């Protein structure tokens, strides 16, 4: 049984995905350099790995889900922690990018452009995914009342889509927190106007969140507390003033430190534990300062997967649906090699689907948002 949860099949899948993403077929995912902000290539490359970390976390869950219908963590520490670690670093990326933007513009960004950009960056693919899931819900057992899904659909995820049959693998919960952070930006912008006090106050806030997250009850199972999420955003924001102090650190040392600290983040037995968040915060600081993990994060293939990471994250549940068909399920559950062979096919198809939706849905949505906002062709920081 434990062979189903071996680490190595996921490593083989990632190597295969990088090889596939390096081919000319994936070149349509290439994005022209943005003119608005200085992109951090290591963060661009990190996104794809984070999205697939969440995918492999759910793949491990899916095996037991097929057996007994219960959506719960797998018995593997590696796969159980892999998803929360990926989501945690996604939140840090969001905190980093938008705090960088606020500081660069001295707390006075173009709010009209920023929020329209967010709506048209998140909205089109989110609507596409939720409508597909809702259509599947209608034919899977008792149809759901349409009005129950209008609020999460119209709010573009600010109110969570419940995903009763896990067709989206339950991933939409994190988008709610992204919106909460976006809504807090006007308040954070006031702090960004005062360079002398903003870093000390941000450090104090992160420390307070860490202490509060340690002391307060954990809540329901794997779910993070609101304070835990605020800690993750604040750690990403702290990387903005601190990263320049580490740019002189040789990449090989920064890469080794990042790998060791990331490995240590798997040790705590509680997902989203403050100590895990702090360890990941240091990893994020190193990566945002240029640690490339021995060139892995700056590979063209990694950056391509990072560019389509929103689709990888949001559409993963739909990619796993083939396991619900009896012949596929029977074959996958018959042995560990069969299971991971199916997973390799599914993650490859997920990458292809994410690439297609990036070109046909995400990019046109971004372009329309810029047109409505009256922007030049410049890109605001991206989700995930």
UniProtKB/TrEMBL annotation:
One GO term describing the cellular component: membrane
Molecular-function annotations in GO: acyltransferase activity, transferring groups other than amino-acyl groups
Positions of the Acyltransferase domain: 43-324
Pfam families with a match to the protein in the record: Acyl_transf_3 (PF01757)
InterPro entries in the record: Acyl_transf_3_dom, Acyltransferase_3
TM annotation in the entry: 6-26, 46-65, 85-103, 115-136, 175-194, 201-219, 278-298, 310-327, 339-361
Protein name: Acyltransferase 3
The entry's keywords: Acyltransferase, Membrane, Plasmid, Transferase, Transmembrane, Transmembrane helix
Alphabetical GO biological process terms: polysaccharide biosynthetic process
Upper taxonomic lineage: Bacteria, Pseudomonadati, Acidobacteriota, Terriglobia, Terriglobales
